Amino acid sequence: MESIQALIADDEILVRQSLAQLLNAEPDIEVVGIASDGEQVLHLRRKHLPNAVPMDLKMPQMYGIEATKQIKQEMPSIEVCILAIYDDD
Fold first, then answer.
1. What's the half-sphere exposure (Cβ side, CA atoms, 13 Å) at 29?
2. Where are the beta strands (DSSP E) in 1-89?
3. Structural domain count of the chain
4. Residues 9-44: tens digit of each pLDDT
5. What does each C-alpha distance from 3 to 33, 52, 88 come to in angstroms?
6. Global pTM?
7. 32 and 7 Cβ atoms separated by less than 8 Å
């Protein structure tokens, strides 16, 4: 089985750090980059060529939906998993 190279995209530092720690604890997952906004995730995905991106929806510079569209247009083999946490009803 091929290992997973993950690029984490979330604007909350605690979420990024926690997710990186959880994913790196798995033997077949390597976190290759961490982005804090949509523009940064696009830059880092070209640099690190991940095969998976846990993506926050609401980020500065560019929302996760737009970043996901661009990723899938340029690199359709990358799997994107949308992360969304809201504290309102």
1. 16
2. 4-9, 29-35, 52-56, 79-83
3. 1
4. 999 999 999 999 999 999 999 999 999 999 999 999
5. 15, 10, 37
6. 0.90
7. yes
